[in-house]
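Revision sheet: C-alpha cells.
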Amino acid sequence: MTATDRSIELIQTAAQAAADKLAHDIIAYDVSDVLSITDAFLLASAPNDRQVKSIVDEIEERLQKELGAKPVRREGDRDARWILLDYVDIVVHVQHSEERVFYALERLWKDCPELELPADAQATRGKAQEHAELQAEEDADAGFGDLR
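Predicted:
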C-alpha cells in the first residue's frame, strides 16, 4: 500500500508551509506499509521554541485554509519543544533542533520511502547543521566557547 493522493497533497502543503516559516531539514516518509494508523509522517525542526510554534501555526492554518483539513489532535504546545499535529492521514512532527537530534526519528523511519517535497522544502536539508555551526562561531566570538 502507498500513501493516498490526499495524504500526499496534505504533506506537500504542510511542507511548503514549514519551508515558508524557515523550518530546517524538512523530510516526509510514506509509512503506510508499516503503520495502519496513518499514511505519512512529515518531520521539520527549528532552532528555538518560538519558531517551532510559528511553523506549527502556519501548517495548521494552511491545511485548514487550502485543503479544509483540521487536526484531530495537537500535542506538545506547552513546551513547544516537539509539537505533533495528527490529521489521521498524516502526522506532522515539528521539533526543536535539540529534540530532533536526540530522538532521531529519521533513524526509525529510514527504511520507509521518502515522499517528494516542494523545492523550497528540499532546500531546507542541512540547515540545522549550518545553524548550529554558525551559532557555535558566534558563541566563540562572544567568549562563550568554553561554556559548551
